[in-house]
Specification:
The strands form 13 sheets. Strands 29-28-27-26-25-33-32 form a 7-stranded parallel sheet, with helices on one face. A 6-stranded antiparallel sheet has the order 4-3-6-11-8-9. The protein is α+β, with helices and mostly antiparallel strands. α8 runs parallel beside α9 (490-503). It is built from 15 helices and 50 strands. Among the domains are: 6-31 and 233-345, Sandwich (Immunoglobulin-like), CATH 2.60.40; 44-224, Jelly Rolls, CATH 2.60.120; 683-800, Immunoglobulin-like (Sandwich); 807-889, Immunoglobulins (Immunoglobulin-like, Sandwich), CATH 2.60.40.
């Protein structure tokens, strides 16, 4: 019996209620069948390599001929790029990505080169062609062809036969499966040819809204994977694990497991569906009528072993471990494994509630959380590598964020979702506003968007179903959004809600990212901006729009400039200064097409910049203080505030607006402002009421903490100093004192906050630059995207800071995660060293800086102060030999 211990297993399965004898006998018979050795009869693989693409305008023959082995074509190479040659690509790949990788177009993101690509040839259909072999198995095989994502329509040919055409294959977010058993050849060459048509105006395609330009090919292509699946007469589809966690206590979790079992044969078939989760086994007899598909369910009432005692619970990274389980389902018939599918899942409970102010909040495993995240976007050509995604998800964790919002079902695979499962980052996933406005989709919209006909409803309902079933096992996903700026037509919303009730009731959903009321009731979230520059105080004093109350599903301070080395990579030297139309090309669209509002604030608050370097230095100051203020305001106001999503998190291409790090994965100052704001235990200054508070964002409690609070005039004369000792409960916000009564302050002054534990170890520090003249928003002139500033705080004294030379020492250590750098930074001068910026660069190319995750950056040092800073250079940075630590800053020599 292969070492199967019945006594041990049944002891494990016994519950406090006991197991009825009938259930025991039934289970025993199934287990006996399950442990008899069975031949495997399934084989699947992705069609990743050996693809070639070419325009239908060039290829003058049809799919019947292209999909035959004797079709002759020339392959493009670095030395042979004749127009008729076919370009090699690896899937997934859009057409443009394939052409760029083959150097048909080069440096497309540099300057305004993107405008130089003619989209005429990209308006035509393009062919994708590959050849593959299928091994000949002993048993009669079922062979299926699966497409995870085609943008936008396609004709699919295999071995000279049309498998499906554009009347069936359309919709970027549809997923398709075709039984190709009658068309494939075993132990022989098969040829697959897919003619892909680009989206046109009115199509529900992948969109970048006003965030960046639309790629010239409109992301036409096989942008997700293509798979060959071999199985027996019966196949397993869409396995799903639901968990119901006992709260509080987490003593038990009841699992419900389901899967669609499909008879691919015209005869009646019986067999056994077996499941395994670690040492837990369960099985069920299944009878399928000819060509029948049946959903088989295992629930904890019938299968008591699915009541998990003391389960390992999945948490976000800031609250606990990211525990994951693996389910394996196997269908056996006639002593053969007809099919086997596995899926990874987590046990966790996500719920929502309304606070006393009428805003929606969220709980994870019964604990209230403040959702702190950013708005995600894929690369413009949808070509994110696994290593790229690894770094980006690591960045979220490093910034102490606990969530990302995906406006659009992003990802060319499940890699992003898997990484968020593993790294403990929550995901809000759903539709984009791309389809809600005529300016973006290219067809008229109404109050519900541009989905207006029965045909449209049907397409979007099917797309919604496909995406939900594809992604629903990921514990990181906590909210489905089936609307964005608006909410869907009631007819369509009914379909969306029905899909959720049938296929996933394990998480929350929202009809809109805005404060709307639909069939599902009030959303209880807001999307009131701002999206352009506002001063730090705004987040504390605004009580009507984007301020720190409720759940703001997308908001931010607008322009977030990359570091100067990154800007040099995409803006020509002659355009670096002054800011001009080339800069604007790398801005957003509509109201976000230039830097005017941001530059006005920079000039008024900090003084006009005289050149590119000064402009960037001052921009980084604004980046840091505003991003920090936004997150601090929402955190210190918990749970009146329940969440905030920084718009945006990352960059689809080299850009100027909305990003915590740039397209090259180089963090800007906003990155470190967010990291500072979201520290686990943290001292915060409220720009609105001038109070200092301490926040505990952990599940731990602390005794005898000591806060050291100091205020310095511009000349560093100490104007105020106090120490506060206190205890801090888990998840507590404690107000410590007000700084409103300090007299004799200079126009520009500084606030130093340091927090020590009972061992007198520094656990948090914060440094603010403040002004006696405060920023005053002009609330009466608020527009949907910005509240203008009536009066600006005057921080221009910063231009008078004396230049300072910094001492540095550093060492490098190789680790599994990359290379760790430990740097000792010292200010030996009698003056303030302000806004110190640390970078790692190649010694022979100082503009070639590398992505680094510092535990602190853009910090200031008082006279004589030292600071040890640790950074991790991720593997994606490549070779770290011959590098140097570059120290720069506002007044650093």
């Amino acid at each position: 019996m292969g070492g199967f211990d019945f006594k041990k297993q049944f002891a494990k399965y016994n519950s406090k209620r006991g197991i009825q004898m009938k259930t025991l006998i039934k289970f025993l018979m199934l287990i006996i069948a399950a442990v008899v050795p069975a031949q495997t009869n399934n084989y699947s693989f992705w069609l990743k390599d050996n693809w070639f693409i070419q325009s239908s305008e060039v290829v003058k023959v049809n799919g019947e001929k292209i999909s035959l082995p004797d079709f002759k074509f020339e392959k493009a190479s670095d030395t042979n790029k004749a127009d008729g040659n076919w370009y090699p690509v690896n899937l997934p790949s859009t057409v443009l990505a394939g052409l760029v990788n083959n150097k048909v177009y080069e440096n497309i993101y540099y300057s305004d080169n993107l405008k130089m690509i003619s989209d005429e040839k990209l308006k035509k259909s393009w062919w994708y062609r590959t050849e593959f072999e299928i091994p000949n198995q002993q048993q009669k095989k079922t062979v299926k062809l699966e497409f995870d994502g085609i943008n936008y329509k396609a004709n699919i040919w295999l071995n000279g036969k049309l498998i499906a055409d554009t009347s069936i294959v359309f919709g970027a977010y549809r997923q398709f499966e075709f039984n190709i058993s009658a068309f494939v050849k075993t132990d022989n060459m098969n040829v697959l040819a897919v003619e892909v048509f680009p989206p046109v105006a009115g199509d529900y395609t992948i969109g970048f809204v006003d965030w960046n330009p639309t790629p010239p090919d409109k992301n036409m292509g096989l942008f997700r994977g293509v798979k060959i699946k071999q199985c027996g007469d019966v196949s397993i589809n869409c396995p799903f694990v639901e968990s119901s966690l006992q709260i509080p206590g987490f003593k038990t979790a009841a699992l419900k497991i389901s899967a669609e079992i499909q008879n691919n044969n015209s005869r009646k078939i019986s067999g056994i569906l077996e499941g395994r989760i670690e040492s837990i086994l369960f099985a069920k007899n299944v009878v399928l009528e000819p060509n029948e598909t049946k959903t088989i369910v295992f629930n904890a009432n019938e299968f008591v072993q699915l009541n998990i005692y003391n389960p390992r619970v999945w948490w976000t990274h800031d609250l606990g471990k990211q525990e994951l389980y693996d389910l394996v389902l196997t269908f056996k018939t006639d002593n053969y494994i007809s099919d086997s599918q596995s899926v990874r899942f987590g046990i966790r409970e996500v719920t929502d509630y309304f606070n006393e102010y009428g805003y929606r909040g969220y709980k994870l495993n019964g604990k209230k959380i403040v959702v702190c995240g950013g708005g995600w976007v894929d690369n413009m050509m949808l070509d994110n590598s696994y290593e790229n995604l690894q770094t980006q998800v690591a960045y979220a964790r490093h910034m102490n964020l606990n969530a990302l919002r995906l406006e659009g079902f992003w990802g060319n695979s499940e890699d992003l979702y898997n990484l968020c499962d593993e790294r403990g980052i929550l995901l809000m996933v759903g539709w984009s506003c791309q389809w809600e406005w005529e300016a973006f989709i290219g067809k008229k919209h109404d109050d519900y968007g541009a989905v207006t006909t029965g045909k449209d409803f049907n397409l979007l309902s099917q797309s919604w179903r496909d995406q939900i079933k594809w992604l629903r096992n990921h514990p990181s996903i906590f909210v489905w959004l089936y609307g964005s700026d608006k909410f869907p037509n009631p007819t369509l919303e009914k379909d969306y809600l029905k899909t959720l009730s049938l296929f996933d009731s394990t998480r929350c959903s929202l009809a809109s990212a805005g404060n709307k009321t639909s069939l599902a009731g009030k959303t209880g979230v807001k999307m009131t901006g701002p999206y352009d520059y506002i001063p730090p105080a705004y987040w504390y004093i605004d009580s009507l729009n984007g301020g720190a109350f409720g759940f703001n599903s997308e908001t931010g301070p607008g322009v977030q400039l990359p570091v100067l080395e990154s800007i040099k990579k995409f803006i020509r030297a002659e355009h670096l200064w002054p800011v001009d139309s080339v800069w604007n090309f790398h801005c957003g669209g509509l109201e976000f097409k230039n830097l005017n509002c941001f530059t006005e604030a920079l000039n008024n608050r900090l003084g006009s910049a005289k050149g590119f370097h000064e402009y960037n230095t001052k921009a980084q100051f604004l980046n840091y203080e505003n991003s920090r203020a936004m997150f601090e305001a929402f955190i210190v106001n918990k749970y009146k505030s329940t969440g905030v999503i920084q718009w945006m998190y990352n960059a689809a291409w080299p850009k100027i607006w909305w990003q915590l790090y740039d397209y090259y994965l180089i963090p800007n100052a906003a990155f470190y402002g967010v990291r500072k704001a979201c520290e686990p235990v943290h001292l915060i200054y409220n720009y609105g009421n001038k109070y200092v508070s301490v926040v505990n964002n952990t599940l731990n409690q602390f005794s005898k903490l000591n806060a050291e609070i100091k205020v310095f005039n511009f000349n560093l004369a100490e104007k105020y100093s106090v120490n506060k000792t206190f205890d801090l409960w888990q998840d507590e916000v404690k107000s410590l004192l007000s700084l409103s009564e300090i007299e004799g302050l200079t126009n520009t002054y500084f606030l130093s906050l340091e927090l020590f534990n009972e061992k007198d170890e520094l656990i948090s520090s914060n440094f603010y630059t403040l002004s006696a003249s405060v920023d005053t928003p002009d609330f009466e002139k608020t527009e949907w995207f910005v509240t203008p500033t009536k009066e600006y705080a005057d921080l221009t004294d910063l231009n008078k800071l004396t230049r300072v030379s910094i001492n540095k020492k550093y060492s490098l250590d190789k680790t599994k995660q990359g290379t760790t750098i430990t740097a000792l930074i010292e200010n030996p001068a009698p003056n303030l060293a302000f806004q110190i910026e640390l970078k790692i660069a190649k010694k022979d190319a100082i503009d070639n800086i590398l992505p680094v995750m510092w535990n602190d950056n853009y910090f200031s040092l008082l006279p004589g102060q030292k600071k040890t800073v640790i950074g991790l250079i991720p593997e994606i940075a490549g070779d770290v030999n011959n590098i140097d630590l570059i120290v720069s800053g506002w007044n650093i020599e």
